[in-house]
Amino acid sequence: MTIADVAAAPRRRPGADVPPERVPSIRRYAMTAPTFFTVEYAINPWMDTSVTVDTHLAFNQWETLRQTYKELGHAVELIEPIVGLPDMVYAANGGMMVNGKAVTARFTYPQRAGESAAYAEWMTRHGYRPADTRHTNEGQGDLLVVGSIVLAGYGFRTQRQAHDEIAAILQMPVVSLELVDPRFYHLDTALAVLDATTIAYYPPAFSDPSRTKLLELFPDAIEVGSADAYVLGLNAVSDGLNVVLPAAATGFAEQLRTAGFRPIGIDLSELLKGGGSVKCCTLEVHP
What angle (nearest 5°) sits at the alpha carbon of residue 222, between those of residues 218 and 226? Predict the structure, then answer.
């Protein structure tokens, strides 16, 4: 499916009473426990070094997320956390794996640079040959697969020039989207992939041209309001039916139900102190 195919795909008629039937599929995820999680520096607007972090609570919340995936039938593999890398729990930023190919993250901030080698080593052990980019890219934080295209964010962390490199490495069409609100510093904080043709997003997080692009590609996308966006409600993971999302995003959960999805709220409030939630903690290994 190309970008043109996505735009031409059949859409649910706006206002239709009966939502389409949603079908889940088994997914493969990689996660890193928050063993060393803390907020010892501030590299996004969510982080405040004066706020105390309860590591035990963070681990319990993370474990609830992991168990939820397992109860849904998904495969969850664990990546060993490394002392001195407190943000390694946000596994989604570690890179991208799809179509048998892998891209290693190149982080913007030196505090997270050590994570690249750790995730690249894990990819290599699992049979990938991860490729590097010359420009910064922060993995699935800014690279989201929708069907057979990649939506790619830029503006705060991933550089726009990296999108061309990633398209060449993955041999997939890449759609560039500009983020303009620093609170939504990664694409996965402002946009959620729900299935191969369906997304949800927070329009004010994007530039005008990028909003236009999203409307053209996904005219029936779910537009989420500020109250849900400001609790990182869009930092969600979907298997095509079940959508695991922050428990505080109650409005978005109702929108999902109306659209035929099954929302599952998870409290990751402790990990939100570092600027991440469900999707940030989940590196999906795409087929």
Answer: 130
Query: Are residues 225 and 231 in contact, defined by beta-carbon separation less than 8 angstroms?
Result: no
281 is catalytic: no
Percent of the chain with pLDDT over 90: 93
Cβ contact 130:124 at 8 Å: yes
The model's pTM: 0.93
Q: Can you say whether residue 137 is alpha, beta or left, with left for phi > 0 and alpha for psi between -120 and 50 degrees?
A: beta
> What distance in Å separates the CA atoms of residue 38 and residue 27, rounded to the nearest whole number?
29
Q: Among 74, 163, 280, 281, which one carries the catalytic annotation? A: 280
What domains does the chain contain, in order, with CATH numbers? 24-284 (3.75.10.10)
Tell me which of 126, 135, 163, 186 is the catalytic residue: 186
Q: Is 163 a catalytic residue?
A: no
pLDDT in tens, 46-70: 999 999 999 999 999 999 999 999 9
Number of H helices, E strands in the chain: 8, 14
